[in-house]
Design goal:
globular
């Protein structure tokens, strides 16, 4: 594994743990972060031992937004590149074959919130805070936050959070469907790893295919999505692991993947 400046990565038991490591800047997202995460995802996509990816932050923040110091003097063209780079990268998280979990340890604001929303689902510390405060700077979200927030929590919630720039608690985020679970801070990584290990223990082809079908189905009609599901379901019968999974069930034992 290559060395990174703003990311830490470790792989164990099929789980790749990525930590944004700029605590002195509240893990603000800069160009170096985007380049390194892109390179890292390329590496992980080729690693057949990795079944789940977990993303978290070092210190008090998951990521407290994009790097304002880097953005402050950008031209139109530079800002456009900065925005589309983040959009493409966060879109890539959803396109990874393996599930990507956000372990939200603290502030997830602006670009940090958008990073979390780009993951497949989110588990948060009860101390975490969420928000899209860009309007306070005369801006709007630039990493597809205007699009993902409405899809995850509904139009009204998206408009309220983005137009007010208000920061909400983890419990409020849970009520809006923005996170799937809230746990005490000291239990966050234990709980996230428990969930990640549960996913990793399941049939890998089935997990990958389920993620693909669910995400692709978001832009299809129910009929089209159901047809896609049937094809994916049937295709899994070509894998020995599927036969093993059903055989293990009938024999009342754990599958030998």
């Amino acid at each position: 594994m290559i060395e990174f400046k703003v990311l830490k990565v470790s792989i164990s038991e099929g789980i790749a743990l990525i930590t944004v490591n700029r605590p002195e800047a509240m893990n603000a997202l800069n160009s170096t972060f985007f380049a390194e995460l892109n390179d890292l995802l390329t590496i992980l996509a080729k690693d057949e031992t990795v079944r789940v990816i977990v993303i978290t932050g070092e210190g008090k923040a998951f990521a407290a937004g994009a790097d304002i110091a880097e953005m402050s003097n950008m031209s139109f063209d530079q800002a456009c590149v900065f925005s589309t780079t983040g959009q493409k990268l966060f879109l890539r998280l959803g396109q990874m074959e393996m599930p990507v979990i956000a372990a939200i340890n603290g502030f997830a604001l602006g670009g940090g919130f958008e990073l979390a929303m780009g993951c497949d689902f989110r588990i948060a510390s009860s101390a975490a805070k969420f928000g899209q405060p860009e309007v306070n700077l005369g801006l709007i979200p630039g990493y597809a936050g205007t699009q993902r927030l409405s899809r995850l929590s509904g139009l009204g919630n998206a408009l309220y959070l983005i137009l007010t720039g208000e920061m909400i608690t983890a419990e409020q985020a849970l009520a809006m469907g923005l996170v799937q679970k809230v746990v005490p801070p000291e239990q966050l990584m234990e709980e996230v790893m428990k969930v990640a290990k549960k996913i990793a223990s399941n049939g890998s082809h089935a997990v990958k295919k389920a993620k693909e079908v669910i995400r692709k189905g978001l832009v299809l009609s129910l009929k089209e999505g159901s047809q896609m599901e049937a094809i994916a379901f049937s295709g899994l019968f070509d894998y020995p692991s599927t036969k093993e999974g059903m055989k293990a069930f009938l024999e009342k034992r754990k599958p030998n993947w």
